[in-house]
Specification:
By secondary structure, the chain is of the alpha/beta class. The chain has seven helices and six strands. A hairpin with a 2-residue loop joins strand 5 and strand 6. Helix 2 packs across helix 6. The relative contact order is 0.17.
Length: 201
């Protein structure tokens, strides 16, 4: 009977009952980082698309910057953004392809405390539906660094718009809220959070 009770409580938690989303953040402060050696912020259509998506969802762009396709430079700038108390989450655009200059996933993943594998999986699945097999070649990824989510999107305007609007915005408040509670109740939230993201998000 005790096992049944535990299963029922866990099921309620996974389906969002018992206030599981009570810690969700309704307003998130974003850092946006464009990775490109050829663009400037004045002609950064992908960054503009992310800004538009973030602001349309009533979130705030706290910081926006551009960095060249250099692994150390990307990692250093990400570290700075993540250390800024005015930033809750980071979205990057660019550098997720297969050329030698595409090093954003390497730079970001080295910082990750935990990866969010479903983000890249879903991005690639949708890309294949939209553009065919070439959609699986993107290395879009995401993870948590010191309680803050980092989402790495491709450099095209369409990919930046889709990824932010359809994948980042719907979950970012939940991820920020969940990650932010781990310091107070790490074991409980990390266990249940892992199950939920595996099954529902």
């Amino acid at each position: 009977m005790a096992d049944d009770d535990q299963h029922h409580e866990h099921h309620d938690h996974e389906t969002g009952h018992d206030g599981h989303h009570a810690d969700d953040r309704t307003s998130v402060l974003f850092g946006i980082l464009t990775v490109s050696s050829s663009r400037t912020l004045d002609n950064d259509a992908s960054g503009d698309a992310i800004v538009d998506s973030v602001e349309a969802a009533d979130h705030t762009v706290a910081s926006r910057d551009l960095v060249a396709d250099d692994e150390r430079a990307i990692r250093d700038r990400l570290t700075e953004l993540l250390g800024d108390e005015a930033v809750d989450a980071v979205v990057t655009t660019g550098g997720t392809g297969l050329t030698p200059d595409d090093v954003t996933p390497e730079a970001a993943s080295e910082l990750f405390d935990r990866e969010i594998p479903g983000f890249g999986e879903q991005f690639r699945a949708q890309s294949v539906e939209d553009v065919g097999p070439h959609g699986m070649l993107t290395r879009a990824t995401a993870g948590i660094v010191d309680g803050k989510p980092v989402f790495c999107l491709p450099g095209s305007e369409q990919a930046a718009d889709f990824g932010t609007t359809e994948l980042v915005v719907p979950v970012v408040g939940h991820v920020v809220g969940l990650a932010g509670t781990e310091g107070d109740n790490h074991d409980d939230h990390s266990e249940h959070g892992g199950h939920e993201h595996g099954g529902h998000e």
